[in-house]
Amino acid sequence: MAATTRVGIQEIFTTMEYGPVPESQACALAWLDTQDRLLGHYVNGKWLKPEQRSSVPCHDPVTGENLASCLQAQAEDVATAVEAAKAAFGNWSSLPGALRAQHLTRLAKMIQKHQRLLWTLESLVTGRAVREVRDRDVPLAQQLLQHHAGQAHTQEKALAGWEPVGVVGIILPPTFSFLEMMWRICPALAVGCTVVVLVPPASPTPLLLAQLAGELGCFPGLLNVLSGPASLGPVLASQPGVQKVAFCGAIEEGRALRRTLAGGGAELALALGMESLLLLTDTADVDSAVEGVVDAAWSDRSPGGLRLLVQESVWDETMRRLQARMKQLRSGWGLDGAVDMGARGAAAHDQAQSYVREAQSQGAQVFQAGDVPTDSPFFPPTLVSHLPPAAPCAQGEVPWPLVVASAFRTAKEALAVANGTPRGGSASVWSERLGQALELAYGLHVGTVWINAHGLSDPAVPTGGCKESGSSWHGGPDGFHEYLRPPTTPARLPCLCEELNYDTFGLAVPSSLPAGPETGPSPAPPYGLFVGGRFQAPGSRSSRPIRDPHGSLHGYVAEGGAKDIRGAVEAAHQAAPHWAGQSPAARAALLWALAAALERRTSALALRLERQGVELKAARAEVELSVGRLRASGAPQDQGHIMRAAGLRGPVLRLQEPVGVLAIVCPEEWPLLAFVSLLATALACGNTLVMVPSGAFPVPALEVCQDMVTLFPAGLVNVVTGDRDHLTRCLALHQDVQALWYFGSAQGSQFVEWASAGNLKSVWVNGGCPRAWDQEAEGAGPEFRLRATRTKALWLPMGD
Amino acid sequence: MVSCLFSPKACVLETPSGPIRRFCGPDEIVCIRITSSGKEKLKDLSWISKIQVNQPAVLRRAEQIQARRTIKKEWQAAWLLKAVTFIDLTTLSGDDTSSNIQRLCYKAKYPIREDLLKALNMHDKGITTAAVCVYPARVGDAVKALKAVGCNIPVASVATGFPAGQTHLKTRLEEIRLAVEDGATEIDVVINRTLVLTGQWEALYDEIRQFRKACGEAHLKTILATGELGSLTNVYKASMIAMMAGSDFIKTSTGKEIVNATFPVAIVMLRAIRDFFWKTGNKIGFKPAGGIRSAKDSLAWVSLIKEELGDEWLKPELFRIGASTLLSDIERQIYHHVTGRYAAYHDLPMS
Hints:
heterodimer, A: 800 residues, alpha/beta, 10-stranded mixed beta sheet, 5-stranded parallel beta sheet, 27 helices, B: 351 residues, 8-stranded parallel beta sheet
């Protein structure tokens, strides 16, 4: 043996090749042996291995060696786990934050003590390069616990009155790092929730983490982990007591889950898709940007593929550098200390392969460094270029480890192309011109933007997305809010109506006929829909009668329909860029002007309300309160803030951007106050609106519109009257409405949730429960502002 | 990083063959680039101002690259022996005398204990360091000492007012000529930092051209003293100018600055070398110096070259490590690899 190695040294001396640096898998195997190579579930602080369950083998993705069998959970196991979490919730949530913080810190220490086991197991089972797991994932897991422990310590003071939502269900996709779980369980546990995690079969690391947490004693049901098929997701979500479900995974699965869970008792938070975007301008440091591409797609820290936009003038240079760099990347066994990319299993391999084939057949050029045998478990780093933009797979999500490159001419065009995909996860901008970089960063519709860097993350910085990437957040203050219920808001109750027919809900509009003499006051408010800054006749050319509480005809309002909604959304989109670009002070000035105008109308409005059966005194109070709400939302507000991330020189900005075009279906009750309260916050945050006022009494809203004609730019607020179910349907199914707030019936809420799966717009529904709009907490609480804005984390590394 | 300086086709030069590849005829490079529109443009270095280097991104890359490649066992031994052949074994002290120069030269010839090499079956590979590097006044001593041990490795001399370069151009040029006369075949010159910091790129180019001429047949290694250049962008620009002016090597630092050879600086210089190669077809060497003391460091540097420039740069003609104490640590590691024990200081001969 000695002789052969000696010869080896001479050979290596000549070739200067890298050698294997295998890390021992012994401790991972020993841990699997303690379970007799049969993994069950970890529930209520102990292993749960029910009889008569099918099992799934867990393979080493490179060698195919069978490492263990994993039992598949069934519905009753899910129920057991949720019961355990429910039982633990009482004690855990009533614990002072400081004690919860201590417990989380102990878990962080526990991870530290067993980190080798953790990284070996994770790398062995997932095939990811051990270096990434050891040097990045495990430390980040500890940092997450530490950070959230700190937050738990101060949370009660900082967010007084906010309550933990309850039992949280977390559903994870087949290809994921255990970090995805940590990002979600840390804030949930910190605020006092307990968790049931459903992991795909054959993922032992979360089970190990649950065991580590369980061995701390004290709170056994805190973290329960089940492994089972994806079909158990809806089962978990519909368990009584589960208040929140966080799903992360493929976009189509998220869509399906959204539809299935419509009207359910659990709020759904989606984090979908893995694709990222890199925008390379001609002023960039191209070599560094190439490293950014490696981080984004060709390493084991990248979750998915990359869309690469390169300015035409540096296209050739970039392609040459990319191809040269690709040749230096090494694929290999995950537990080897000198590889960049491991294998991610057959499914990921096939997905990448089929994308490459499809792209080739649609005219793309494909570059792969080196020759990889077809039966190899490793997929080589791949660069796809010259894919025609109209090709079907140019629209689809780019899988790992692919980079799809295309050229752009100007920064403006780059922005249009980048925002032209339905996804809105993360992006990086590479430019040495600060002005240009910021212009692009602010203009991109994504959740995270890195300038001259890619793929950084930190527990203190919120990570999330918009559009089809889902609107849930983890990390930072936003991650915290996901698992907290605003003050005085009751727990969500299921409003599921089995009979609700999604195909016919709100489809037909009842026809209206003349209904007797009008008794409304004079002057009557202008007739028509308030769209694009003026009152317009409805497309249907028909009207609906409005009656007072005694049943006598008050008057007619226009009957809006699908075409009017279309027009209103278009008008709102036209007004959006200007309004979003206004300074908060300029927005406030307009809101204050509207408040002054309303104040002048106080007596007229009060009389109107009185005719609807409100006492005059109460009516005046409602008007005054409305005026107050307008003024309050114009007052200076928190406009995002600056954070510091570990290991980064320079700030991370947490921007609070408008959601875009926001549709609001106002409640039937409080026809003036609710309308104004909703409008005030939404406008102050920079959104443009399409509003459906109270169906029973839309008149006060129309009165307010009269003032908006002169005060507001056209299209800023559009008010469409008509059949609420029908209008709700039109709005909920509209693909270009970014968010929808619905205050109405339980059935309407269920429909809105179901229909939002189309463009995965963020929705806020009341599930049929009325709100006390005259109470500050429910009529103008912090929740409004959270829902009316979208966070964007903007990373600005500095240095010279 | 660089917008096209000149058409790559027009200036690909024949690479002369030979044991040590010389990048000769620096004039051609610049002239071929220019002549189409007259001699005046020779001084047009305005493109230099467009270069961009993003420091935070380079720092991140530097951090990653050190952790990405681990080398163990036989590979480690072989790589370490290879690293030995890259070393410019250096002594640059005020108290250098002929006796310690002699010892240094002996160590350069026999860098690793013979029995250790035999155990690895590498004793007949002629493993020596790449060169010895001394002050100009000691060149004579070094040449004599090397001759005495029967060794033909080159003697490198620092020059041009090393380490500060703050002497008159005339004396700096004279220093080079004298060192070459004494038998130095490699000259490590320091650049004039003043010219970089005040943006006088043409003047810098002209100075290095004169150094080049003064060297004659000797190799020109240009020390950029990167710790004093202010920014990575300046490092890139200075690297480019030094290569255009005809340097055979570019070298990070003198070892006398506060900050010496660091990975971020190296990454920028290596990228400049690669750009220059892509544009002109000429391979320029790289020499980090200062602060490289442990065997582990040397592995990281070798792997950095392999990653950024590729295997063809892994030879003494294109890669050197300027170091004095590194060799003994490498020898200790080899000792451990062969014997399985950690060496005591007295187990290995001193240099």
